[in-house]
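Give me the 3D structure for DUF5906 domain-containing protein.
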Amino acid sequence: MLFGEGGNGKSAGINLVRAMFPPEALASLLPQRWTERFALSAPEGKLANFVSKTPSGERLEGGAFKAVVTGDPVMAERKHRDPFEFRPVAGHAGDRGLELVHEDDLVEREIGPRLASP
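Predicted structure for DUF5906 domain-containing protein (118 residues):
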């Protein structure tokens, strides 16, 4: 995740890295949608999930965020098809910090280092 005020190149950096992947290997699903019934199927089989403009002031349910970012198995669904389980392998990039809602420190211990590491 990239943090900072506007106009400092976060989106340009994301677009530069995005250009290194073939279009079919990418998803653009906002983390705020990772709990929606059909949305989570978007990153299945993708190498990266790039979102250059994330909404500010929204809170995320920490369990869903942790599962997707750490590659835990998640259930997804496509319209008119059976639900399926997959392990997200896509790296995720966004342009601002996210406020997570969680009941313990698992998010800080497991996700914090992943977001901070280069």
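The beta strands are 26-27, 48-50, 59-61, 74-76, 84-86, 91-93, 99-101. Let me know if you want a second pass.
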